[in-house]
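anyone seen this seq b4? input:
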Amino acid sequence: MKKVVKFGGSSLADAKQFAKVGEIIRSDNSRVFVVPSAPGKRHDHDIKVTDLLYECYELAEAGKNFYEPFLAVKDRYNEIIQGLNLNLSLSDCFDEIENKLLHEPEKDYTASRGEYLNGLIMANYLGYEFIDAKEVIFFDEAGNFDSDKTYSILSPKLEELNNAVIPGFYGTGYDGKVKTFSRGGSDITGSIVARACRAGVYENWTDVSGLLMADPHIVSNPAVMKNITYRELRELAYMGASVMHEDAIFPVKKAGIPINIRNTNSPEDTGTWIVENTARRSKYTITGIAGRKNFCSIVIAKDLMHSQSDFYRKVAQCFEENNIPLEHLPSGIDTMTVIVQESKFIEHEQEVLSRITKIVEPESLEVESGISLIAVVGRGMKSQTGTAAKIFRALADARINVRMIDQGASELNVIVGVPNEDFERAVRSIYHIFVDAE
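predicted toks r here
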């Protein structure tokens, strides 16, 4: 069974972490393809290499001196090389990056060099073949991942090799230039490689022993999810859970490849298994809690709106015309509530409200900002009665006013809206009633 292993920035922040990663890979011969991220923070006050590279680009694009952050980047890689006692020089690579910054700065190219350079070091350290992601991962004309072209080139390439390092985060755009995924995109690269080689497992190594049931910055020492389905992870990732990029699920999901989230600093921990389906039951009713701040609600009231077959379409059109995605649409018989991200709505607020007034002629329009959405997710909720009541009780006991509630037909999640100032307290209250009190 082949395993694809992806290591995050914290796992590759310095030579000491590299050595840990080397031990993990060499301890299991089935770990044949490695996807590295760029070096992350070595301590709380450190700067990620990718952030330094973005700073280099911004300065170069503005015609300013970029050498301070650029020298910091060079120092990071040279320290790793020296710490591992490698016979490797990246001087030519640094010269190429510098030349591009001076004469033709490109944002995606510059940002991608973090993974590229770390990939070169990793390949040298392990004695593995190096595959430049630019040669095997592609995007289409619309800027989306081109799966057909990628797998037609990447799969046979991997078939030829026993071991290889493929840097994460980037590929080639339709114009032939380097193009990156969104931040955290090395997770996606790992998933793509896993599908391309028909891996048995995709191991994603980070600095926590699996996915946590809540944000550890909000809940002290939250429990680890042992097993979670792809659908549950999508719900949590969408609502702010940040261990893994949400788009990394799709390639492996289609191929039925499980994901195992592991801890580089505690490799003996089994971590979290992410699967399509499982008969394993969670210890708790819920699987996890996640949320985000700063949403707006627009409440549209009009008698007999439900009798107008095009009412919802007309309202949605007002937001679509201003490129504002609709997050949730909890509604009553004579009211329709639209939940949108505050940052995307405020800029076009008056245009949208004016258009709604003109098209559907509501009896009233109410707008409220400063709302946080919290998703309570769990496949076990549909077999338990009173889940929503339990959430309301937790929030009522904490004297938190619920601004919205929405439950999908799948009974996989319940979403509640609370004031921004009550967000952290609400998460802790919900976690306590489902985890600490069960």
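The chain has 14 helices and 15 strands. The mean pLDDT is 93. kinda curious what u guys think
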